[in-house]
Amino acid sequence: MTTLNALASISVLYVLFLFGVAFFAERASRRGRATWLRAPIVYTLSLSIYCTAWTFYGAVGSAARNGFEYLTIYLGPSLVLIGWWWVLRKLVRIGRVQRITSIADLISSRYGKSNLLGVGVTLLAVIGTTPYIALQLQSVTLSVEVFNLATPGGAEEQSTAFWVAVGLAVFTVIFGTRNLDANERHHGVVMAIAVEAIVKLTALMAVGIFVVWGIAGGVSETLTRIDASELGNWEVNGGRWAGLMFLSAAAFLCLPRMFQVMVVENDNDPQLRMAAWAFPLYLMLMSLFIVPIAVVGLDVLPAGSNPDLFVLTVPLAYGQNALALLSFLGGFSSATSMVIVAAIALSTMVSNHIVMPIWLRMNEGMASVSGDVRYVVLLSRRLSIAGVLSLGYLYYAQSGGGAALSVIGLVAFTGVAQVLPAMLGGIFWRGATRVGALAGLTVGFVVWLYTLYLPSFGAGVIMPLSLFETGPFGIGWLKPEALFGISGIDPLLHAVIWSMSLNMVAFFVASLASFPSPLERLQGAQFVNIQQGTGGTRSWSQGVAEAEDLMVMAQRILGATDAQALFLREARRQGSETHLPAPTPEFLQILERELAGSVGAATAHAMVGQIVGGMSVSVEDLMAVADETAQMMEYSATLEAQSQELSRTAAQLRAVNDKLTRLSVQKDAFLSQISHELRTPMTSIRAFSEILRDGEGITPDEQSKYSSIIHDEAIRLTRLLDDLLDLSVLENGQVSLNLVDGKLEDVLDRAAAAALAHDDKRGLEIQRDWTGEQVWLNTDTERLSQVFINLISNARKYCDAPQRVLEIRVTSGDALMIDFIDNGSGVAPEAQDVIFEKFSRVSDQKAGGAGLGLAISRQIVTRLGGEISYLSGERGAAFRVILPLNHALAAQ
Amino acid sequence: MTGPTGTEDGTVVRPNRRSAEKIPLFVERQTYRRRRLVDAARALPVLGVLLWLLPLLWAVPSEPTSASTGLIYVFSVWLGLPVIVGVLIRAMHRRSDSPDPEDEP
């Protein structure tokens, strides 16, 4: 039998070994050779502080008592890691970017650096963790007792717990508050915990392997044995199975010690990526041998043995002292690693959210006074560690180490899980407010206290028995274990359901109903949008802060060397020649974040605030920033619209310019043409009239011939001048229309006859649409026929097909459409938009007229209320005349 | 006339292109694959919950399930899921050049 002294010396040796590991790691880290300290595997193993002594001993006990329910405690965290993409990834990034130091700091920082929330979460964490520490002390004491059955004694038990607590306090103070790093990481402690993770896994698996292969005789025999035992049937309480899975997942995220190793100590993403698959496997291995050990323990040990200690008593019963010793070390390391990290996490919270704000309040306005604050912070942390451990010890001593402690694990889980709504709401929902978080936490905390924590001491201990039977003041629906008259649920499940759901409802409703402060909104946006990178928001406006004051303060918290290095770096970045950077909002932001890494966001904010003098961001600042942005966007949108408008106008101008240029060229050509046209008849008139005047001996035949030439030429001149006059009259709108009723067919008949009267040998076949032409029109038929004559003559003159055909199509609908389509080559595309202009002629060589015909036609049709256009896309030249149709007449 | 339409195109297309940078309709095959890997990573915990809540249904048949069957089932899932997570993370990492696989939420 191993003696107590041997056990004590082994424990001391083991603790010394841990000291060595932590010391070595710290030294390596300080020398900058810390790459392997940040290895993903170290991070993964450090997460194993989830598995405390409660796991190491208690899981077997739980399996022996309640069957397979113990699995849920490990399935929940496995699911959290398997779903690492959802929550952990985001949480870890927020932790790194915002320099989060604890879960209280996360909540406080998210909700506008509210210290009230920080204090609330800290209190909840202390209340939830103290019994847990007591549980660890109890487990160590119990395990020592197993080796020391011969001498059971209250005093000795108490002293074991006491000395363990003292030893852990010393270790934690030495390695947990060694430095006040900017980023609150403890390489030594994390390394020691990683080593402990291996020790406890090895120990538990060694016992498991001994049980399966050494006692039961193999895997299949073990399975048979399990089926034959009282755990033989798969029986789980559905509600508790699902509820505990949820609860353990929630607690995994919210437990202060888990948050410490998972978020605060996290250094890079690869760490999390490995933990996502490796830690569930670790948990699986930890749970693998629990049932075999429980079953074999129940089998071989005398009835009434404490199943919580099977891990120790089974090897001892088979005389495997060495194995039992290893198992003891496993349990011991489970207990110590939990206590160390929990103490560090709690002391950080207590010091940052309770001690420092009080100290700041007491020394109001003294933030810029010189003197190292670091020792104040460190001292407060050391005292907090001592305080947390003594609380745990006192709790253990008071509770007497009874069975009450073994149920406290789940009670504590439910307590810390109350932070979950505020935490998840804070990182996923920008609408979550400080008031909402406070309301949710308060409601959840009160319900937990009332329905679970206080009743857990047993009816009649704190709460009077009558309360359970009749409710407070006889109000039946307020009975602690049957709220709202719903009874018969498992008390734990009852508390989890009510505390979590009322917590969430309060959080949500109060968030909806309240309005966040500007700082809250900034922080909310930064937390929720952490993935899209940070920056762009600032929580300080340009103030009158003196750089010297800031320097003094920073030195007191960061230490002279670090502070000077930081200020110098920022000064260089700002391009300043001096050692002091200008206190710009950006610099204040950076400085505050550095300080937050040491003393928490709320305290850092308050300290900077004392010096800068309340120059924190205001609604007006926010609105100014938002307005600026909105104005810029509006302005650029206007610019864009204007530039589009401009380019459209420019395009139109270019088109007009093109047209003008072409018209001017045409006009020049026409002037020479018309002078030629006028000159030719004039020349012959002059010549022949001179002959007639001077001529002697002119025969009457010759005389009559010359006179008729003069007459013809004069008519030609008159016609030309008539056309010009006509056009000018039409253009000036001085024309008077002679409106009569007429049939389209008659007008076309007349026009065709007139146009083809002077036809030469080049024949033109006209295809008419006789039925379509039976339309009555109320119009100036003379003018209309002038248009038709012009169109038919054009076809006669310009159609270049050998067998010339002009098709006249009539379509009547809302308006009357008359198309003149010939079978020639048509008008060239570039000429199509100018043919209706005055003096425009399709080609010079076919100079048959003055180029006024279509211009006149267009004027006439416009006067008649219709329009004329060129139809492109037909086989030849095609013109369309559209006339308004009088429906009353069309019916005749 | 082709001149003006050309310039109008230029000014009209620019804002479209800018918004397209924010929410592209189509992405490269590589990016598409990576996003589907992320979807898989998101779906895994849901699958895990379903698989581990399944034992609750075993109470329904009159013939009770033996403990060994239950344990083998729970532990097989427990082994399988982390392996799939590991494979997914590897695949994600291989597909992205940056150390961060896909920041899109």
Automatic annotation (TrEMBL), chain A:
Q: Which GO terms describe its cellular component?
A: membrane
SMART domains from the UniProt entry: HATPase_c, HisKA
Q: Which domain of life is it from?
A: Bacteria
- Membrane topology type: Multi-pass membrane protein
Q: Which UniProt keywords apply?
A: Kinase, Membrane, Phosphoprotein, Transferase, Transmembrane, Transmembrane helix, Two-component regulatory system
Domain Histidine kinase positions: 673-887
Entry protein name:
histidine kinase
Note whether Transmembrane occurs among the keywords. Answer: yes
Please give the InterPro entries that the UniProt record associates with this protein: HATPase_C_sf, HATPase_dom, His_kinase_dom, HisK_dim/P_dom, HisK_dim/P_sf, Na/Glc_symporter_sf, Na/solute_symporter, Sensor_HK_Regulatory
Pfam families documented for this protein: HATPase_c (PF02518), HisKA (PF00512)
Catalyses which reaction? ATP + protein L-histidine = ADP + protein N-phospho-L-histidine
Provide the protein's localization.
Answer: Membrane
According to its UniProt record, this protein's enzyme class is: transferase
UniProtKB/TrEMBL annotation, chain B:
InterPro entries the record matches: DUF6611
Stretches that traverse the bilayer: 40-58, 70-89
One family name in Pfam for this protein? DUF6611
Q: What keywords sit in the KW lines?
A: Membrane, Transmembrane, Transmembrane helix
Record carries keyword Membrane: yes
Q: What is this protein called?
A: Uncharacterized protein
Instruction: Name the species this protein comes from.
Output: Pelagimonas varians
